[in-house]
Every structure is written in structure tokens, then in C-alpha cells.
């Protein structure tokens, strides 16, 4: 049974202590600061309060403590409860209620807020059905709902795959495990073909829905049914999702889908290539197990190893079980709205630190994404309190609430495409939180120059589950590592892979059983993931601190020595994979140069830090600005105008999605694709040279000047 949320002392009705035991000195100091700022504002309404946080290490530490002490688990809980009162699928009327809630929250805090609106092609179901005919001639029409009671009056959208083509498929069933290329090869080795069949897939970790359907299509399958083994946490949930290839609005590929702008027709080749050619649907575990139990034919290939709940003796078909599946959907042009808050910087207002989360959800979205939305709303509340007490960030901070992420990161992608030049010239970093809390344990992915900063932030935040330890201490004790961001599953993708913006993505909990089901609700959150909202508080603390550190530090806290070491590790892994068949010397030379330049930049930064900070020292300010520009632009060097072959919108040659689903590396996507395709040594060598040139561009950006 969950404990009630704890009661905390409040200022103006807002709880100020996020921890089990409040830190008295820090909290009372914050109360005094707020009282002083409030009275000053009352008597001088047109004048900003005196700057109580001058830029030195002592005051910076005090600012960080005050930010943390103003957290409130009860307040975050109230935000999440309001956000999840109804489903809010992008493009639907309830999604406008969520939009207005977020917009009104920001505006009520006195923050500069605007809406960036776009038009995008979204996909909705009108009819779905799956019927099985078994060997004994009996038939069964499956229940395709995961909503208790009468689904016809439920506001929750029926389980479907967005952008699946409308149509029916009828055929014998073949179980294809995770639906990867290797799974089909294993079936072929025992004489099983899927041509003319409906394939049943248990969703794995390495291949997304779109990839599953794409491979099945190439193998001659007529339709695809996908189920997840987690069974919606035992509730019978069914996982919704998109099967569109690529990200962003499909009818404005490569340019922003602004209202009244150019839109391609649905039969344009650039549009049709984004969609599958065969229908697919999600299925519950219960229904999948009924089909699996009916299959005849050969036993599952030994290469598949552990089949989880399926069992090693599973038959794969095709037997006499026949599936008839139908999906009817409609494509609609819908307006989508991003909400953007601007907190103007005091000294470098033309440099931007961006915090982002999407707010649209397949159903109620308590975990995905509104645990992150509620954290973002609380960060904005805390920033507003700091602003009232006299703080202003050195650089401008943007708080972004994206729309239509679930359909393929559409809201953030359109915004990036509209602002790509300005982002390239002035964006310092992008900090993404999608699902803030899924369960226990902190997880993060980042570009390597941000590793040290992330660890520093973790050291300042109390662990929500272990009293007396910081998040950094528990993160380290669990032997957790900071992952790299080659995946394409949240809004950081466009920032990093297309625009070359250093990025972080963070979340609590490795996964959760109600993902994209009707059971992703506030009730599930308070009973299973975060009853007292301590993990939400911790995530908001880490996220907000990272924003403050990146916005306030006179020198941008990027560590390119760390990046150089990571590149060297990638080079070593690649070398072992190639087994000497292709030379990696171009990479070695480029990384060696990058390492030397990174060391020089670190030495330069150290000397500047040793100088006493003086806002009025014009010469020192110019030196910092020049170094900051170089630090900021390095990541752009890894972009290549031609992009990744087969996925040309993705430009990053170090971290990005491989076009070949069989690629074995989590980095150097162009090289990984060439290896996966068994390309000639010359093609692999060319891809190695492309990456080497990208690293050389990054070195030149960090060094500055011209050859």
C-alpha cells in the first residue's frame, strides 16, 4: 500500500523541501531570499531585484542549493495528475487541453512564452480486426482492446500502428522470433519460408516496429502481428506505436512543415518510401500465446536460444492456423503546437541552452512522457522563483514542450528544420527527458564532452532511494555507464544527428511494463514507479542543475579530452572487428590530432579559469567568448553534408542510426553499414576516410583560425 505524500513547509502555498529531512540552513536562507525579493518587487515593481548571485564559486554553489531546496514532490504530483486526467494523442481535441495546461502554467509564472505551430500528416485507426481459424476449423475473433469495460465509449485510442497501410492480409502463421534478419536466416536453414504468410513477432530490444515490418516485407510476408512479452504489467496491455521510417512530418521531408508551406502529395515517392507496404497490428501477449499454442511445423531453430515465455520446444509453423487481419486507417493533416519558454541571458543572450520534453501520449502518458513534462513544469516554477530573487542566467535558456513525438519526433523535428541555421550558430546543448520515471535506477546517454558535467550534477543531488547517498554514488556502485546516443527514439535525435548539438538524454528505470498501453496512468505511477515522487524530484534536480551549469559557467563546461578518449575506444573496437582487412590509419591520425587539440583547449580553459572573474574585463571576456564559440562548434564538425547513405537526413558520422538493421556498431554508422552489407574493402575504406575527415573538421573547429 502506498504511503501518502509527505507534508512540507510552504512558501506561498508551495512546498519547499523535497527530501525526507529538510536541510534547515539552506531552506531558511531561501525563504529569506524570497521575502527580500518579494518586498523589493512590491516597492520597485519596474526594477529587477539586486543580483543576489554574483558569479563566483561560492554564490554558484548557493544558487545550486537553493534550486534544489525549492523542489516539491507534492507539486510535481499535482502536475502529473492534471496532465493525465484524459488521453491526449497528438492532433486530437484532448491534446489541446494538455497544450493549454502547459501554456497557462508557463504564462502564470510570468515567463516569456510562445507557440511554434506546424502542420503534419498524422495517422489514426478507423477499424481493426484479427481472426484466427484453427486446424479443428474453429474460429476466434480476438479482443484487440486493452481498456476495461466498453471500449466503444473509451477515450483511449484502440491499439494500432500509426502509418500502417490500410488493407487485409490472410495467410498461415509463422513465428519469426524478434523478426531480425538473423531470425529469418535461421528459419531458412530449417526449410521454413514466410512468403505468403502472416508473421508473428515478439518485440525485442534491438529492432523497432518499423524495422520489423520492413524486413518482413522484404521476405514476402503479407502482414505482421507484434506482441510484447511484458503483457502490460499483467493487465493485458497492448503496445501502440509508429511504423513510419525516419522522423519528422512525412509530407515535408527535409524542410519545416509550417502552416501554409509546401506539402508533398501522398503518392510522391519521397512520401511513400516512408511507409510500409504491408499492414501490421499490435497484439496482446495473451492473444499471441493462443496463436503460438496452435502452431505446427518445425521446432524453433536452436540459434534463437532463450525464447523467454515461448519455450524451447515452440513450433514455428506454418501449420494449419490461418490468420485474417484487417487494418483500416486514415491520414489527416493536423496542426501541432510546440510551446517554447525563453529565459533571456544577461551576458550571452545569443547563446542557448535547451531543455526539452514532449507532452503528447498514446494514452494517459503518466510515464511516457508526462513524468518528464511534470518535471519540466517544476523546473520552470523553480527558475521563476530564482528569477524573482534576482538571478538571471548568463546564457539564454529555452524550455520546450514538443508535440507529436509519438508519431516520429515530429514537433521537435519541424522546429529544428525551421531553426537549423540559428541552432548551428548559437545552441550550446540540448538536454532531453522523455520518460523521467519508469522505475528505479538512474540511466543516461550523452555525447562524450558532457560526461564530466553530468557526473558533477549527479554529485549534487540526493539519491531518491538510498538515504545518505548521492545519485552519483549509487550510479557508480551499480557499475552503470553513460551510454552513447546513436539510437533514434526521442527528441534528442534531430538535435544531435541532424544539427550537431551536444546532447543528453536521461531517465529513471530501465523499462516498464505498461509502455504505450492504456495502463500508463497516474494510478500505475503512484502504485508502482514512484509513490512519493522522490524520483521525479531527483530527475528535475539533475535536469535543472545541468541547465544552470551550462547557462551560467563563464566557460562552457565541455571536456573534449573525454571525447578523444571515446573516439580512440571506438577506433580500437572497429580495428578488432575488421581484423586487419582494412586499414584504420586515417582514423588513428585524425584522432591523434583531435587529442592534441583537445589538450591545448583544456590548458587554455584552465588558464582563463585561474583568472579572477570580472564582468568588466573586456579583454578576458573576449577570450572567453572566443574559446566558448570553439567549444560550442566542435560537434558540428562531425556532421557531413551527404549524411548517412540510405538515411541522408541524419548527418552525424560518429553517432547516428545505421541504415542497415544488421549493423554491429553503436557508432560510426556509415562504416557499420558498409561492414554489414559485406561491401568491398574500397567502400569500407571510403567510409573510414569520411569519418576521419569529420574528426579533422572537429579538430579545426576546436583549434580555431584557418589553415
UniProtKB/TrEMBL annotation:
One of its GO terms (molecular function) is metallocarboxypeptidase activity. The lineage of its organism: Eukaryota, Viridiplantae, Streptophyta, Embryophyta, Tracheophyta. The chain crosses the membrane at residues 25-42. Its EC number is 3.4.17.21. Belongs to the peptidase M28 family. M28B subfamily. SUPFAM superfamilies: PA domain (SSF52025), Transferrin receptor-like dimerisation domain (SSF47672), Zn-dependent exopeptidases (SSF53187). Its cofactor is Zn(2+). Residues 338-523 form the Peptidase M28 domain. Keywords: Carboxypeptidase, Glycoprotein, Hydrolase, Membrane, Metal-binding, Metalloprotease, Protease, Signal-anchor, Transmembrane, Transmembrane helix, Zinc. This is glutamate carboxypeptidase II. Residues 582-703 form the Transferrin receptor-like dimerisation domain.
